Fold each of these.
Amino acid sequence: MSGSNVLSVSMSRCSRCPAGSDGICCELSEAQFKDLSQLMRHRHFEAGSQIVHQDDTSGLFAIVVSGTIKLSRMLPDGRRQIVCFLSEADCLGDLYKGISHDTAECVTEVVLCCFPRKPFEAVLKKHPELEHRLFLRAMNNLDETREWLFALGRKKSPERVAMFLLWLLRKKDTRLSDGSNLSDASFLHCAFSRQEIADFLGLTVETVSRQFSKLRRAGVISLHPDRCIEILDLEALQLLSETSS
């Protein structure tokens, strides 16, 4: 297949990418797309499979096309904290570093658009607009990390669980990231187990289950099969995420 045909196939595939409208590769110029298309490879992972292990040397940088990934860190004594969940359009891998500080494991089936790290860094230097877009996304991620750091340090378990459900709503539709139209969304699928939620929020499984039950009895949420959650009283959930007795 000629270079022009390969580029045409890549453009066609990327135009159908569910992460394309929100990822760092949205609205690429032809030159940027050409340079990236020469590097990108799609890889598929089964739920439960590990992509990279903590402290491993890694040359991977990737964009999540579909699915959910959890990033976790573990202490020598076995204690674990999930530090982040990645979904469509999120980036996986540390640029300008050769060591992964986190273990990346698939919560669901995952499709990644992968780039070798060093050549990708060279593309960023060649196209500063793309590097700037990646920088802005990193700053947004830092803001979210600080928000969760505050929650884990100062908020009580009811507030954390309520905040987690609101976060799921916003992740469901990135257009709701400012919280302005959250009332438009009420039904979501939670791909995470109670253990994963507990490890993310710094709680026990029993505490998470107890808080979900309290929200259900209070009429704030409804729990459905296959980890589906319906938000019945969004105003109450928002209020609970800020104050709890």
Amino acid sequence: MKSLACFIGVAFVLVSTSAFSQDYRLFRIGLGTGLTTPKRIVPGFLLYIEPSWRIHNNIALGLRIETMGLPYGDIGVMGSYSVNGQYYFSKGAARLFGGIGFGIYTPNRGLLASCTCENQPMENVFGFYPRLGLDYKHMVFTLDYNAVQKVKQRMFHEPLVMNQSPEYFNAETSYLSLKIGFFIGGGRK
């Protein structure tokens, strides 16, 4: 009896979501790059991949895998794995959208990380990001503010002293990013 009720519930959800008229393709994969908030003069750099599924013409749910590097930041590289939702405010070739996402951020790890950092304490931290953007044909421009918990990092002194006890500080991990990318799929039918 439970399996029959579950089957009817799943069938109802599938039929009701497909009953909406879809003007856009259901799936898309976004790829892109961007710049992050500068620490000193040189900004950071990021790469991302973002598959998403459009559940309605104006609503999309997606995943984001991102690697960010800051040349002069408290942390060198940070990877993030998150889920997000977007709401599109307009129709046409140029579509404004807003959204929010949340996920796990991994300081000093990611696609571009080169150190194993055995002596560096590493922890996964939680974060979220509100976003604004513009889709134009198959291009996307996005502004995200990634609010990430601070992490404890080890402070290194120059020159290194062998018997010195380690000192730790709370590293600033939040950043603003401006991204440009393109997507495959997801356009008008």
Amino acid sequence: MSSAARQPVAAWCRRGIGVMAAVVLLGSAACSGDPQATAGEGVDKVTYLTGFGTSGRESYVHTAVTKGFFREADIEVKIEPGQAGPFNDNAVGAGRAQFAAVDASGAFVRFAKTTPAERRVRTVAAVQQRTLLSMVTLADRDIRVPKDLAGKRLGVGPGAAPRVMWPLYAKLAGVGPATFVENKPDALAGLLVAGKVDAIGLFVAGVPQVEAAEAKLAAEQKRPPRQVVKLPYSDYLTDMYGTVLISSSQLLAQDPDLVRRFTGALMKGLAYAVDHPQEAGQILHSMDRKQDPATAARELELMKPFAVPPGGHPYGWMDQARVARSIALLQNLPMPLVTPEELVAFDVMPQ
């Protein structure tokens, strides 16, 4: 049995009230009304961290809870808002969480820069088959192609994947030096529409947040909203995965069946959410009333083309040859050489 020991499930329900310096509990099976919240003996209790905070593109985990996919797998999930890659890596490696979402590029680089003895997490599935990283701007900033970003002020989250991957993206896209303005990720859309930065590093699926912020400002200023322009990193980083699911090396060794069951249930939630974005948006709103269901649905619609695996493979699938190409691409950062088998636990992902 793993560190996520099977035990009687207490009745608990704590609703998240915002993203703070420490993770804040966002929701649980009991909050959703899912019958797993009152399950008895034989249920594994685990903690899952979102990639960052609360957003529509991450609502698939709430969908998996509400639709009973985790209950069917005999798992009870506590969902907490994560704080990007390094924080999530450390939480999973230290056993404070059993699973987390992180950006693949950052996860691969961090893994490769550690010694074998220090490697406490591994990738177990891909949420998105292509990277969602992008630079996002507004039509009046005269930024149409990546080279136009040279010399501009670019808003990024501290240590966030768009900043980490910028040197490689800029090299491949032929972009000259730019100035970076760091701020909290949830403040970036406001900085952009207020004209304090020229573009922001953002996931493609986060564009609706910028559109909502711009629509609000345009209404206040009684003018038409400006068009949002996105410059996806995937145009150049063609072999990079997007968000991936990680688990601890210890849990993989002690209870691989739990990892398989959790991964399978989460991927069922992902497939359902991108196929039913309106319903998934409502589910997220029911868990956190601050989340606009329409915006959440739009994020899932934008994410779907990035999440559907090629060739009819199941959601979450990762290809060893493509992981090897991702590693080769990341050598340009530079990054120490590792093998796909070291990075990814291919034996536990959905088959």
Amino acid sequence: MENSLLTILLLPILTAVIGSYLTYYFTNKSKRSEAILRFKEEKYSNLLILLQGFVGKTTSGETKKKFFEEQYKSWLYSSDEVVQTINEMVKLVIESRGKEPDPEKGRKAVGDIALKMRKDLLGKTKLDFKDFQYTDVIE
């Protein structure tokens, strides 16, 4: 009789405690994931805007400098694929230093960076590098 009374009292309390802990754990995990996603989205958008320093009429030494400052910071939060793709673009920039880079390789490098960022944030995409384009603003 004591066992059944103990079970009747203890089981609901134990279930409530475990349920509360699980709810707390998964809520915190969800909030943390959401905060990380927002942070990455903000940082990736900064990098994307600064990529304009490498493209067409928007090419700018100052913008490139800011891009490289952000790129160094991106090692802390970017996926491996994003870091590797940025490194490929940097390699292209270094190789073409002092001469006009191949426009198609440049478009691919910049488009691939945008694509890898998109995949890191969304998980998957059907787009490819050709779908990403910068538009030069004509004065």
